[in-house]
Queue: 4 jobs
Job 1
Amino acid sequence: MIKWGIIGCGKIAHKFAEDLLTIPNTQLCAVASRNLEKASDFGKIYKVSSCYGSYQELAKDSDIDVVYIATPHVFHFENTLMCLNHKKAVLCEKPFAMNAIQVEEMIQTAIKNKVFLMEALWTHFLPHYAYVIDLIISKELGLVKSLRADFGFAANFDPKERLFNKDLGGGSLLDVGIYPLFAALSIIGYPEEINAKATFGETGIDETCNILLNYKNDVKATLYCAITEKTKTEAIIELEKGAIHIHSRFHEPSSITITTGNTSKHIAFDVQTNGYSFEAIHVQEMLLKNRTESTIMTFEKSRQLIKLLDAVRSKIGLIYN
């Protein structure tokens, strides 16, 4: 039985908790919020035995094997270090932290304490995405020539809400732009050249961001993210012998269409959960094998992803305090 704790009680924490209920030999034993009433309300829904009004209390709970951190971006670093230093395995939501320096300290702390740590980039574990990655690696359709990926939604403007609050790491890049960037990184690799431009809102955060990544042999990734407009949120990969279309929304459980010549094949993937179950199952497999690093979402992948995010932020002039 793997016993989980959750830090943070927002929307994504609810989805993750729902999925934990579907996994055998798994128990959600504790939840923590800075507001005890919020933690208690969350706990009642999922029949959680221990509800805490501080994150520190959960980190000290000797009954917990692994903690899922679902707090705002700016708190990932301190929340992760706290749990790792209490010898708790950690699955931390993306982005792992606010910059590469923080990510490296998190990784080194996990190594020092010999405790498992992984960035919760759930897309990497979804059946449709794993299928696409395997297909690309096989070179059945030849080499990748280009990628187009986007993620945009229209959020209601509220300067105090996390998305528009710079003090909480708000903005389109860290919240949703990370998914097209991860697609480029996992499908093509780290680029040779990075170009980006953004539009900024009244609270100082990037509301939209256009990104162009250039690779060897004229391979390109054209990416876009927004929190002020809804986009198709799909990914289209052009290869030498065909194309792969990951349908909307590409970062969630989805379907794909493979086109070669005049032939198209649509593949649906039967997913019965929200989709977070796949990364949770992987974490548990790693724990049962006494691993301290994921074999899929490795430390190096998290290093590369935050390096890319930092580079784009530098290009658009986005600075967090």
Note: The chain has a mean pLDDT of 97.
Job 2
Amino acid sequence: MKEISDLIKTFFAYLSRPKFYRELRRKIYKNVFLRESSFKGKEEAAVWCKKMAVSQNQAIRNLTQTQNIQTLENLFPAEMSYAKNAKDMCPVKMGGAGALEIIYYLCEYTRAEFVLETGVAYGWSSLAALLSLKNRNGILYSSDMPYLGKKNDTFVGCVLPQELRKNWKLFRYADKESLPRIFREQNTFQLIHYDSDKSYNGRLWAYPLLWKHLEKQGILISDDIGDNAAFMEFCTTLNLIPTIIGFDDKFAGILVKN
């Protein structure tokens, strides 16, 4: 009963915001015709990921040659304390933090000035990127579709301290509307973090587009790649060898554009 109530609430939330009508049509189509394909190849992808998975610290060492790896809590105690307090005070529950050090160290390694992410929620990944970007006055471009019907709009990115927000541009649309707007402002990026539409078809649409806008020697990170076979197939199609991180029973994939 609660699920039906939530669906009705979300539907009317979409109806009240015309700028999301295109995304509403896509969601209806996906839930009616593509529901079963969201997890296509999940078992095969999970086996593939487990076979290659390394720890976050090992991935950082392999990719950047950094040996003295510290947590963000040790590197930025004040900012991380602020972030944790903001998250605890937030009345809306959103996504977890994930592997933050990999984002920070890869931004440092690439000397990133322009970073793109899809999916924000509390803003943990945004925080990791911005803590690096601030050193070069770089810009983080974020695409984040509001959780319609959940009243979280004002809390997206809530863990970000005010002094970091001057380096942050947030686009509040679905990726198919946000990304063209972002690419009109900035065409290429040194690092891209994908953490939005996790469905098989959503990834198949996003990966080639994001790869196109990644600079040579740039890095693509994708979360939850064990959910379906899209990341595995993308790697196979382009003959790419990924770095795969295993943490909290999940997998993140990393590709360098050589």
Note: The first strand starts at residue 114 and ends at 118.
Job 3
Amino acid sequence: MKFTYDHDLHIHSNLSRCCKDPEMTKENILNYAKENGLSTICITDHYWDAAVPGASPWYEKQPFDHIKQILPLPQEDGIRFLFGCECEMDRNMTLGLPPERFDDFDFFIIPTTHMHMPFVRDEDDDGMPETRAKLWVKRLDGFLQKDLPYHKIGIAHLACCLILHKMTREDYLHTLDLIPTAEMERLFARAAEVGVGIELNQDDMTFTDEEAERILRMFRIAKEKGCKFYLGSDSHSREWFGNTSRTFQRAIDLLGLEESDKFII
């Protein structure tokens, strides 16, 4: 059976500092699920716990007390509305989510590709494609060696354009090209082993036909290694909801995904 678009596990409410749409309320997010026939949705506002040192100035304004303001979440028959978060790792691979908070969330996503944030990059980072390709490997490797409840974790936007912030589209694609296939095979074999979810992010999946194989290479390898996938619109405004179905259906078709490839919380 073909993989169905029946969930969205990466959504930002107006509590995330990067969300500028006051209409990204929990009620409107639930309406998005109803209008699109989704059975599972998850709020994943940005978060760094106050008990963990090392937050950037941007992240330190988003502790648990801030993001929990969205609770309780409205419920609807046939829809699971989950409470999650998007939490960062710094350059030392310190995760801003302490173990004592794991049970406070139904699901959480960890990006390894927010390389536009200085506190996640190596101090001697030169911003060049070769450096960022190596950092892509280093950060994903570091994340996959942690002692975490991977069954309720997703890796966000692995093909994120922010791996090479403020450079050309071709430079970004070239960075992806430079990530060795052997390293991808090793890392996605590990991801499959621990059972973490691999995100198909709406922005990552928005590409031209000519770009498709350069971006999808990592996801094809992940599928070959037995990884499971979930969909994340990464919506920061209600406008983003308008393209989710078309974008996800195209990605599902190009990757040939089946229901057996789906990550289930």
Note: The radius of gyration is 17 Å.
Job 4
Amino acid sequence: MGFLLDRHRDLPAYVPGDHEEGDGFVRLNTNESPYPPSPGVAKAVAGQIGRLQFYNDPDCTALRAAYARVLGVEPACVMAGNGSDQVLFLSFFAFSDREHPIVLPDITYGYYDLFAAALGIPLHRRPLREDFTVDYRDYCGIGQNIVLANPNAPTGYALPVSEIEEIVRSNPRNVVIIDEAYADFGAESCLPLIRRYGNLLVVRTFSKSRSLAGARLGFGVGCPSLIAQLETVRSAVDLYGVSRMAQAAGVAACEENEYYMENCRRIAKTRGLTAGKLRQMGFDVLDSRTNFVFAASPWISGAQLQSELRARGILVRRWDAPRIENFCRITIGTQAQMETMLRAIEEIRRERDAGAKR
């Protein structure tokens, strides 16, 4: 006997990257940080073990205050959630429904589709340009809610703040959600705009730039009135969603913020070196402002490259989707990990060349 409601039977499922943790694979497929959390995080988390019998602070008071100091905003401008995915889901739930659809690019973060499907929200897609960039004019003055990953995933391109501002300014009666999961790796953040526009929600995560993917910690940042509206929904459906240990880890990460910003600079430097080497091998590599590169080769398909790398113990990500099926998304790891990957690609090329000559 089945009890699942009919409307849920065909819900799509998010397909994550492979998670072969600790088995010798070089994990360049899930956009995690290659660097561990800062020393203070381990100490802060350990300090909470003897207090797990108590509920966590539902308002995340210390965490919101700590991250607000990092961002240079008031705590009332910040909401904490169980990962940025929860913040995004709550924002969809709070501001959109069948009568209030969402406009977004046709190639972007896949979870937006799943949230909309679960909530019955229509999605109106705008195609990326031929070069995979977003044309901001597609979103100006449209009078509908908007979600944009900036930088976009999986392409890595970022819009300048001036274009984001035009989108926000020209849709004053609609919420514009800017997902800045990767902004710390070289993109221009639109956070300063929250002081001027009450319809802008900026979503951030500690999974990428602050090495806390396993802690599940994300944030919504906006003007106090918008955050208060979002808190109304969070308080109703998941009041204690950010665990005591995650809150402690987040506070400690904020206190050691420079450690993480230096890691972001290291990753950006490695990204540039990796992109340069891939281009020398003939790859088309998009101009990324994230902790990954999106690359395609004229001499091997994306599926074949992914398979060949996996056979050599290296995991990368790809999608069977129009326009991007030959691209692989390659997370930037340590310099040593990227050199391992590049050597593997050179080996694959040599083997293919040798096979062609036989």
Note: The longest strand covers residues 200-205.
